[in-house]
């Protein structure tokens, strides 16, 4: 990781994110009823202190970015990241419609695909088996309440 | 001798078959996750937290501690055979251990790591048993301002002292502290940063954050890597150590133990720091300096003993003060809270039986681990042949299982994805993960202590430095913050960045 001595765009994005977070804290703290009691420190004060800390860190990040003082990440392959995020997104969307097993199988399959496993249907099929076993163990035996879809109802309650 | 009889009672309770079973599950899982690159003990405990809601508290906590110990054992296997540390405390083991494996001495390297871990685990757990009651006596004299000062010290050492940049460490910490503000304020009941979303009222779940940062962030980072990893070196010959190996190892084990335990038990960083310092010590004291870098057995024996001793040491502040100093300890604290238990001096009074059973179980777990890791080593090596697509697919499925099991709402899963992306970004730009988790869990506690201290002093801020203990602790915190910054500025930063704490 040899730091390249030129301004780094990423540092400015990070600094903006930190400043944004600080702004959220400050706006929220301003809306709280100041009820400090004997301490003189109410619910809004600690968030405010943290926000000031974040602002200082944000400025320092800009300065270190100008100096090029941030590790340069190695080149990234974007496709696997999108496969995995897509799997997580589909699971979120389908969880209550299709149930834990189907949405979990899709997540497993798309993650495996992101790691280079082809064909996709085979990966999803393996995920289906694994998710069924997990559902059986955790929902049926360990009483963890997992969302059931048509498949779970068919196999475990039908 | 009071500790001794309590420990004996604990041992008797720990021989209960159900407790033994929990311990066995814990150490087996711990070894497995230690062996597998990419998942460490912190993540595993986080994944198991929701699953253990309905189980026996003592058994579950023993299982978590077993995972922590097991992770320290298993991590060495991957370091030695693959040159990719299975968890962060085994990074230095890879330096000498992998060289030994390249020369066909992988067997003795694994053996000295396992036996060293056993020796260190045994001594350190006994030290924990005898030290903890003393610390508890001390802890009872501490007030809110001393606790606040202790927490500040923990914040500084976790974020700014080690690693290659104080700025990035502190940034991670403050992100954690900011996330900690979400939810109902513990003292006044005011809702902060909830924006009317009911799921945010309880604050951000430690498990959601930890699982997202560790599991999802790691999976994204590994998947996006373009370079393939190193090949595996198979174990040739026997795992037996020669007489010379023994002679060179035992002193290193003991030195590692006595370096690791104090480091772990002070709020001064976790097992990774200890293993690095042990390596440095062995390198200085060795009679075979020419072998260092080319497979010196002391360089495996010392650090492996040190990281186990430090893991046991970490339990001292966790159990007696309720102060977590590593990510794994932070998540174990969440585990205690899940069962309505608050670690701290009162735990030794109110739940004495549980505490002593836990400590005694660690002795038993340690024995189980040496059996699991020496004769059965071949089994663990097979784990490394699981293809990565299946491994990471399974990790993500389990990662979401925990969140879905507790709270199957889109909000919670959305946070999981969001924090997962954040974890990926943090890995890309060298931001440490552990300070975020420690900030999230210690933040609200530090805030409460601060406001309590100020309430007692009627809002006078000088109260924070008005006792010798709190003033000293804050002074040490300032030194730990400033000195490493000066060291980095003078170009001596490599030492610190090598000690960089990453995951556990």
- How would you spell out the order of helices and strands of chain A? HHHHH
Question: Largest beta sheet of chain B: what is the strand line-up?
Answer: 1-2
Tell me, rounded to a whole number, the average pLDDT of chain A.
86
Poorly predicted ranges of chain A (pLDDT <50, ≥5 residues)? none
Estimated share of beta-strand residues of chain A: under 5%
The strand count of chain A comes to: 0
Please state roughly what percent of the residues of chain B sit in beta strands, choosing from under 5%, 5-15%, 15-25%, 25-35%, 35-45% or over 45%.
under 5%
C-alpha termini separation of chain B: 34 Å
Largest sheet of chain B: 2 strands, antiparallel
The N- and C-terminal alpha carbons of chain A lie at a distance of 58 Å
Structure commentary:
The complex is a heterodimer of chains A (158) and B (504). With 158 residues, chain A is mainly α. Helices cover 70% and strands 0% of the residues of chain A. Chain A has helices at 9-30, 45-66, 78-114, 120-141, 150-157. In chain A, helix 1 (9-30) packs antiparallel against helix 2 (45-66). The longest helix of chain A has 37 residues, at 78-114. Chain A starts with 8 loop residues before the first helix and ends with a helix. The model of chain A has no long low-confidence stretch (mean pLDDT 86). Chain B has 504 residues and is mainly alpha-helical. Chain B is 73% helix and 1% strand. Chain B is built from 21 helices and 2 strands. Chain B has a two-stranded antiparallel sheet. In chain B, helix 5 packs antiparallel against helix 12 and helix 11 runs antiparallel to helix 12 (298-321). The model of chain B is unreliable at 500-504 (pLDDT under 50). At the A-B interface, helix 1, helix 2, helix 3 and helix 4 of A face helix 8, helix 9, helix 17, helix 18 and helix 19 of B.
